[in-house]
Amino acid sequence: MLWANGITHLGIGARLWLEGLLNTCISGMKRSLETLLALAAIAVLFGVVWTQVIAVEVEVKASPPMDLGPVAVTGQVLEAGPLELSVHGFGTLQAVRRVPIAMEGAGRIAWVSDKWRLGAEVPEGEVLVRLADDGLALAVKTAEAQVAQAMAAVSATLVEVEGASAVELLARKAFVVATRDLKRVAQSFEKQIASEQLLDRAQSQEIAAENALELAAANTARAKAAKVTAKAAVQVAEAALAQAQEARQHQDFRAPFTGRLTQAKPQVGALVAPGSAAAMSMGELLDTSELLLVAQIHEDSIARLAGGQDARVSLPSRPGMSIAGKVRHLGVASDPVTRSLPVQIAIPNDDLKLPAGLFAQASISVGQLSGALQIDRKQFLWLEGVPVAYVLAQRGEEFVAEARPLVLGDPVGEGFVVQAGLSHGETLLTSPLDRLAPRAEGKHTPVWMKDGSTGPSKDSNLGAVREPQSGNEPPAGGAVDQAGEAK
Asked: What are residue 348's DSSP bridge partners?
């Protein structure tokens, strides 16, 4: 019975589970169908928008060309004349001489000159810094005493040499007398006038005089040798003194030339040594009586430069200032990146008192051209890589802007030398260049001069603005004129 009930409940549970699964599947299929229908509706709507709005090509119709009439221009009459050629460069001003204030010895700063101030000028030979002696002064005094002692020994040996020489002279005279007496006694002995005893005594006296002479000569030689030794001792003592003095001088820094200080006064008591931070912080001494502009010049212009050429130096920080200078030195190595060489230009600075380090520009005179024309960079256009200028020309009863291809030469200031394309007396149109290009069918652009000084004015019959056809006349100056001036 229990077994049969269990089977029944199990069957009921399985039926309920299958009914739930079937309901779930039916619900999912309904949601999937709704999603597919929504996507289909969106696709249809996008297709309609694409075909009716996005994909429609708008046909752009070209507007008919408008005749804006003559262009109001400005210009200048070209005049050929002598032209100074120059080479330009830029760089920084440097002191003609500079030396770091560095101590050769090591020690603590014991004294600093009262003249030491930032930017102050100090004379040549001025002691600026002195280190503590640390026994060097005593070494100098000891060496000086040794020199004095050696010189006194030399004086004593000179006295000895003089005394020994005097004794040698007397001994030599005594030997001469003894020799003469011996000769006379020997002659008397041969004549049997003198006795043999007298002859023996004369010979003994000669031998004694000879021995005395040899002894005196030896004393003189010893005295002279002592004098040489004493002089050598003096040289040794003087060398020791010089060494001590040099070591003492290493404790001082003297200005090697008149110059200006670049750092503030160092602190007394600071420990310095060659290469230490304290030594490096004492700055430099600059000789600014003359400044050198190290200008970078392109290698294409170096062939026209030479030492001694005149130059003019200007400084952006000093508007209106122009300083005469001379080319002093040309560089020997070109920078592989900028293809330029350094050129030194010297300028006097005693009166100007300019500081070193200022940026400057140089113009070096390299010759002169006669009958030359020049054009500013703003007075021509580059069209397809060719420089083109516009000049005033007459075509029948109309003035037009005629395009002229140019052949440019050396740069001059903000422009170039014109080698071909322009002639003396022509009117060069300078503004507005962007409106002077040929119009439809290659026709030249008609123009009129704003001021009428170099060509037709607005009121002239040639190249004048056309009168309006309608009764609504524009105000004075005309819309075309106003557009040209605004342009």
From this structure: 290
The answer on pLDDT for 469 being more than 90 is no
**H helices then E strands: how many in the chain?**
5, 20
CA 345 to chain centre: 11
CA dihedral defined by 370, 376, 380, 385, rounded to 10 degrees?
80
Alpha helices in 102-190 (DSSP H): 136-190
Question: Where does residue 112 rank: exposed (0-12), middle (13-18), buried (19+ CB within 10 A)?
Answer: middle
pLDDT band at 18 (very low <50, low <70, confident <90, very high): low
Residue 479 pLDDT class (50, 70, 90 cuts): very low
| Average pLDDT score over the chain | 80
3-state secondary structure of 126: coil
For range 66-82, the mean pLDDT:
83
| Angle, CA of 427, 430 and 435, to the nearest 5° | 110
> In degrees rounded to 5, what are phi and psi of residue 70?
-60, 150
Three-state helix/strand/coil letters over 262-305: CCCCCCCCCEECCCCHHHHCCCEEEEEEEEEEEEEEEHHHHHHC
